[in-house]
Amino acid sequence: ATPTALLVGTGRGAQLGVVIKGPEVLESTRRVDTIVLDKTGTVTAGRMTLVDAVPAGAGATDRAELLRLAGALEHASEHPLAQAIAVAAEAEIGALPGVESFRSTAGIGVSGVVDGHAVVVGREAVLDDWALTLPADLADAKAAAERAGRTAVVVAWDGAVRGILVIADEIKPTSPQAIAQLRELGLDPVLLTGDNAAVAHSVAAEVGIERVTAEVLPHEKVAVVKALQSEGRVVAMVGDGVNDAAALAQADLGIAMGTGTDAAIEASDITLVRGDLRGAADAIRLSRATLGTIR
Ligand code: ADP
Ligand code: MG
Questions:
Q1: Where, subcellularly, is it found (predicted)?
Q2: Is 216 exposed, middle or buried, given 0-12, 13-18 or 19+ CB atoms closer than 10 A?
Q3: What ipTM score was computed for the predicted complex, to two decimals?
Q4: I need a surface site. Which of 18, 89, 95, 211 has the fewest CB within 10 A?
């Protein structure tokens, strides 16, 4: 392969909103057979909105108090879910109280003290610390939300479950077409997420992906890529988050959403400037064509 021909390939990539770090990247791009896709912010828009707040015990918890304490806690978190909760709480309640002893556990949730109450918000697993379980009515509401592809987080304070909050994200309109294009190129798509399995399967079905790995902790994403590689697969990974960076670096080809975090972009070989997943198919098609002409 002559360097000049490869550079032409990368130049054409730039026209498509695909920035390739160096000509050597095209070689690994050509051999990729499996593409792992992060869900939130990659397949979905990552623009989350709070769509429901369900207080525990049919009114035993006040809805405004649920939003106030959860919103105050999430105000201190940068997670897209957290921002959706904080924004909605502020809109409904006004100024939110401050948080003391704030703690964030990546891929799990947050905890802290708000107005003298010890509050936790996150995955259902956050209840384990207090040996709590989700009451049946909230478990039903959570399951229904997840079947609809929405994320539900649980809220507890002072040793009792107080409610669930339901957050909706939209699938990017271009995602189904992008998945179809990747398949046409012979790639096997895999959806990877820290979110609940029911949510992940709902999103996967909507965009045409069959293989799903859900409820993965941030540090486990890299292990999923390694496991696929040890099956002999050549793996591309597409992601946008800080928690995707290690997996993007481990993949044979790392592809970052230009709309995502700097950590993801730095760990990747290719950046899709507009955050359009179809750019991944463009990059692979382009590298095959470029290397085809110089062979
Ligand atoms: P993804 O892989 O989809 O980007 P994450 O790994 O960031 O998801 O988070 C996985 C799950 O952990 C979320 O679906 C949510 O249940 C929980 N979680 C993480 N951070 C928070 C937070 N700040 N507030 C509430 N829940 C959270
Ligand atoms: Mg993401």
A1: Cell membrane
A2: buried
A3: 0.95
A4: 95
